[in-house]
Design goal:
Bound molecules: NADP nicotinamide-adenine-dinucleotide phosphate
Low-confidence stretches: none
CATH class: Alpha Beta
CATH architecture: 3-Layer(aba) Sandwich
Number of helices: 8
Helix content: 40-55%
Strand content: 15-25%
Radius of gyration: 17 Å
Structural class: alpha/beta
Strand order of the largest sheet: 3-2-1-4-5-6-9
Largest sheet: 7 strands, parallel
Shape: globular
Mean pLDDT: 97
Order of helices and strands: EHEHEHEHEHEEHHEHE
Number of domains: 1
């Protein structure tokens, strides 16, 4: 795989899977645009990326639920590179909520996990048509089945919507040479659960049960998922569009 001279935007690049995608893409000479909120983490990731091939990434601090911040991602990228080849819609929140909790958790999750993806993708699309580029959306196995040990109703809905978005946009842009695919991870070791409000003790318990119960007896590492994302973003996946790729150590079999 080679991303030499390819401009790659990664949302949620400050942590977990997005940070792993950034570091792996940096090793393949990508021109990176790292998007997130936490500047300390973004700077750390950028430094690691720069060490790989000496290419300094651009950092864009953005709250994705703010439309102006989303527009700023595209304008800063175009100003710096005048092109966009790959968009990795990776950022998401795992707000907990059940049907008994009212509409607030739904609005909060959809604003980040779906609405911002819609807006950013629509703004990036003209550039992807020009470059014959592609999009990888980071979804979840929660798009296919409810999660039985966590109240994640809005999150599951947001990921199901994202999968349909992947397929609809892939169909719409296929004739213009733009591919759109999804990676749907199962349990992956990242700060995601802690960011969703679980205590360290609860996270350890969650990981322990998943390491014991998943068919492959382990959860995924961020790098496992990043590897698949970059495969789909590369020319090696030139005949793949509208596809949803599960990477879950067998969780969907349970
Ligand atoms: N970990 C899992 O088990 C798992 C399983 C299935 C799917 N996924 C999916 O994998 C993707 C990456 O998650 P992760 O596990 O790597 O989690 P993570 O470590 O918590 O990373 C989430 C990233 O999203 C960013 N983000 C969240 N809300 C944002 C907002 N409103 N505006 C801007 N950025 C925002 C965070 O930025 P800051 O930290 O800078 O705020 C962070 O970089 C997500 O789409 C998630 O749904 C994860």
């Amino acid at each position: 795989m080679d991303f030499n001279n390819k401009v790659v935007i990664i949302t949620g690049a400050s942590s977990g899977i997005g940070a792993a995608v950034a570091q792996m893409a940096a090793k393949q000479s990508a021109q990176l645009v790292l998007v997130g909120r936490n500047m300390v983490n973004l700077n750390n990731v950028a430094t690691k990326c720069e060490v790989a091939k000496g290419i300094k990434p651009i950092i864009v601090q953005a709250e994705l639920t703010n439309d102006e911040d989303v527009k700023n991602i595209v304008s800063k990228t175009v100003k710096a590179f005048d092109r966009i080849d790959v968009l990795v819609n990776n950022a998401a929140v795992g707000v907990r909520g059940s049907i008994k909790d009212g509409i607030e958790p739904y609005d909060r999750v959809m604003a980040c996990n779906m609405r911002s993806v819609y807006l950013l993708t629509s703004l990036v699309t003209p550039y992807l048509i020009k470059s014959k580029g592609n999009i990888v959306n980071v979804s979840s196995v929660a798009a296919f089945k409810p999660i039985n040990d966590v109240d994640y109703l809005p999150y599951c809905i947001s990921k199901a919507a994202l999968d349909q978005f992947t397929k609809c946009v892939a169909l719409e842009l296929g004739s213009e040479g733009v591919r759109v695919n999804s990676v749907n991870p199962g349990g992956t070791r990242t700060p995601f659960a802690e960011n969703a409000g679980f205590s360290k003790k609860q996270v350890d318990k969650l990981y322990e049960s998943r390491n014991k119960n998943y068919p492959l007896r382990k959860i995924a590492e961020s790098e496992d998922v990043a590897d698949l994302i970059l495969y789909l973003a590369s020319d090696r996946a030139r005949s793949i569009t509208g596809s949803l790729y599960v990477i879950d150590n067998g969780e969907m079999l349970l």
